[in-house]
Amino acid sequence: MRGFRPNYHVWVYHGKSGVYVGNSSKNVVHEQEEAIYVEEEADCFEDDDEVENSIDDDNDRVEDMLHEVEDEVRDRVFECLSKAAETPLYPGCTKYSKLSAVCTLYNIKTSGGWTDISFTELLVALSDMLPAGNELPRSNYYAKKLMCPFGLEYKKIHACPNDCLLYHKQYENLDKCPRCGVSRYKRKGVSEGKNVYPAKVLWYLPIIPRFKRLFSIKKDARNLRWHADPDRRKKDGFLRHPADSTQWKTIDKLHDTFGKEPRNLRLGLCTDGMNPFGTLSSQHSTWPVLLVIYNLPPWLCMKRKYIMLSLLISGPKQPGNDIDVYLEPLVDDLRKMWDEGVSVFDAHANETFRLRAMLFCTINDFPAYGNLSGYKNKGRKACPTCEDDTQSKYISECHKYVFLRTRRLLRRDHPYRKMKTVFDGDVEMDVARRTLTGKEVYKRVKGVETVFGKSVKDRGTTGLWKKESVFWKLPYWKDLPVRHCLDVMHI
């Protein structure tokens, strides 16, 4: 794999001590790492074909999916699904039942991104092609109705269009925002007596039922303890998985009751703005909030199947610093998962246990980093690590700040420190400041008064921290050495 220049320098160690391999037109290091990765994955799957096969089997898993359904509706739901699972797709068909056929087609619809209209047209065409008396639904509506017991709940929470608050808990029955006075509903075209169109909506997909669903499937229940299995996880001193990090070990040490249970979940949170309408509306910004489960093997935790959409913050404007308002339902569930835990059935161990979960870190780009952490990461003091010690220079021609003294992060004897002409003309002798611990950061943000909402002109913050982030409500947040991370694409 060639670089962007024919004689591109392969930076293997980035200044660290070791054997230098010289220039190359082919990145041997990346090829070796990829080969090792494929070999490790193959080795793990070789011993666990039954449980870890990446291709789902054809079983409907009706009983597994109904473990966490309420008792009073379980019998009725099970009866309907069992009847669909036992009904052949058409008279004489032995390969597909009514339920398995609909599930197979709906999986193809989801993975292909088909619209409901095109899927209905496909169902009609297939129904006409199959023998008479077939049981295939003829519309997307009836296909979804058949599978609705498999679905998971979601909540539509009305929000103030100025991002002041959510209309739940003590504000649930209000018709207008108590802070900015803006109506909760879209009045245009709607009579005063019919308040049916909210001005802004937060879609929340509760995480607890989804965790229960994961543990109700035997294959997933076993994979969720992969990080604690010495026979499946390689430990050779390299950082191959978040379980090899010092943060993971710090949590196990400070919260030993949490760390002793390998099934307890450690989650990563990711969010960024997106335009769901393509190029039709370049100003529209919708913010999904995703959760990744770090208990899983590295080749599974970033698969789309295991990335959980927990929140969808509707546009058209981005929440910005007011994102804490929308994170509140998720943080409440995370707090519950830490303080109390929930009773969950483990299909692999065939037992019920108390599941707990924690937010391991957040992963975002730099603007979202500032929104979540509460640090003012714009302007002269944009570095959340250096804070007041940030060294910057303003370039008037492009109206931007640049940060030149990054050589302070290098070791004392690094040759770059003495290079003048290729940098800013000076020898760098200073060292970077020590990174603040979570408890030190909490002392700085504790008590910072913040009023959320786009209509607020003066937020009352004059320091480098603009708010006390909602994540500080989590009891363990101050114990984490690294709370917010930047994704690799933005480094």
- How many strands in all? 11
Largest sheet: number of strands, sense, barrel closure:
7 strands, mixed
N/C terminus separation: 21 Å
Computed structural class: alpha+beta
Estimate the mean pLDDT confidence: 82
Written as H for each helix and E for each strand, in order along the chain, the element string is HHHHHHHEEHHHHEEEHEEEHEEHE
What is the subunit organization of this protein?
single chain
Return Rg in Å: 27 Å
Q: Which geometry do the CA atoms define?
A: globular
Amount of helix? 25-40%
- Describe the strand arrangement of the main beta sheet, using strand numbers: 1-2-5-4-3-8-11
Provide the low-confidence segments as ranges. 13-38, 43-58
Q: Beta-strand percentage?
A: 5-15%
Distinctive features:
491 residues; 11% strand; alpha+beta; two-stranded antiparallel sheet; Transposase-associated domain-containing protein
Write structural notes for this entry:
There is one protein chain. This protein is of the alpha+beta class and 491 residues long. Among the domains are: 62-150, no CATH class; 155-384 and 476-491, no CATH class. The chain is built from 14 helices and eleven strands. It has helices spanning 28-47, 49-52, 62-65, 71-86, 98-112, 116-129, 140-147, 207-215, 218-223, 246-254, 256-259, 323-339, 366-373, 438-445; strands at 155-158, 201-204, 265-271, 287-293, 308-313, 342-346, 351-355, 357-364, 393-395, 400-402, 484-486. A seven-stranded mixed beta sheet has the order 1-2-5-4-3-8-11, with helices on one face. The chain is globular and about 85 Å long. It comes from Spinacia oleracea.
